[in-house]
Amino acid sequence: MSGRIMPCSPKEIGSLFLFEKLSPEQLGRLCSEGRVELFDPGPVYTEGDPATCFFVMIEGTVVLSRQVGGDDVEVTRASQRGVYAGAMQAYLGDRVPQVYNNSMRVTEPTRFFVLPADIFADVMTEWFPMAVHLLEGLFFGAKNAQATIGQRERLLALGSLSAGLTHELNNPAAAAVRATATLRERIAKMRHKLAVIAEGPFSRDALANLIEIQERTAERVAKAPVLSPLETTDREDLLTDWLEDHDIGQAWQVAPTFVQAGLDVDWLEQVAAAVDEEILAGAVGWLNYTIETELLMNEIEDSTTRISHLVDAAKQYSQLDRAPYRVVDVHELLDSTLLMLSGKIGAGIEVVKEYDRTLPPVPAYPAELNQVWTNLIDNAVSAINGAGGTGTLTVRTGLDHERLLVEFRDTGPGVPPEIKDRIFDPFFTTKPVGEGTGLGLDISWRIVVNKHHGALRVESVPGDTRFQVLLPLTADPELSGSPEEQAEETV
């Protein structure tokens, strides 16, 4: 949008704080190479367009805004003379994209001193060479520091996840090792018991009955019901009494194993009826070893299955074997991240999942979204731990005005209102020194907003803090660039 050209007065622009130290010759050059324009209420320039001009307000009111997802969000409003916007990085040349980083509009007739970007770059370099060098160093130094610390943030997160995964893998692996060693011992005892039975005066029919009972007992183990503690105690007492009444030794040790396998007194009566009385004790001992081996094999199966699930979750989390940009089910990503972070979440925090399973898959960079989930869950856990270590983390999905919503809600102390507008700024952190870099939320913002063209927002009161990620349901044509091009947006 163009304004109406008006006379430029060196005296008037010299009264603006940006130019108050310039010489009359410099002010004359600005007026000759720049211009004064009067804009009616409405837009002046739009975010993302080529940055062609540097604007300094002489009088009026300006509003600056940023695009957040599909929304235009106001970031500042000013009526102070001399405020400036536009091509403020023109002096950096083609080393950075020369586009407007925000949109500007005016709410009343407003006059600006307007300087073309190339002229602004020339006068900055010619009149303030030292300042330009300092600004260049500050800009590129901060950018490099942000990239370096961002990599460090990722490494710290990876280290934390690795430690958690190692801990989670260690438990089932140790259980499988213990169960395997015990299983070896039980099988050795079974061989010994088999030798004793083979040497005894038992008929072929009696042995056949014993083997048939063994098979049916193994089947009962697989179908054992889940009992309450009270039911378990009552059944153990009944079985112990029955075993002692039939002169079977170590009844107090055998009874819990039989109960765990789902056996009861009626079953033992069937065993007693199927074998001769003189071999009942040996038969019960043989069945005890059978049950123990079945239970141990179940334990080994459960442990190795747990390890397999953890490995699958790690693969799903890292997305090492997947395309960088594809259609994904966010629930799979959330579940893998929660599993990877389960060791860090701890027993004092209850995790509640409120998933809308009717949601469609969405096009996304899944590895990047997993990083967002990690950062937001880590923040929620830190908030709850800071408030006593017990609380609830609720992960909810749903639809929000034709966008997919993923919400992380914690019962921590909340985000103070005075810092709510700063939490997404680079390097801003409320954690103690050494515990946070202040880039977790900044990286999350860049991934969600810049890379996925979604939105990231926060709502917080004490005891109820909600970070909400909003993702488009359909692919954005601008996301069709190479992974390398897209990756640059998050640096």
TrEMBL record:
InterPro entries named in the record: cNMP-bd_dom (IPR000595), cNMP-bd_dom_sf (IPR018490), HATPase_C_sf (IPR036890), HATPase_dom (IPR003594), His_kinase_dom (IPR005467), RmlC-like_jellyroll (IPR014710), Sig_transdc_His_kin-like_C (IPR004358)
Keywords: Kinase, Transferase, Two-component regulatory system
Domain of life the protein comes from: Bacteria
Name used for this protein in its record: histidine kinase
One Pfam family cited in the UniProt record for this chain: HATPase_c
Domain annotation Histidine kinase: ranges: 300-475
Top EC category: transferase
Catalytic activity line of the entry: ATP + protein L-histidine = ADP + protein N-phospho-L-histidine
Molecular function, one GO term: protein histidine kinase activity
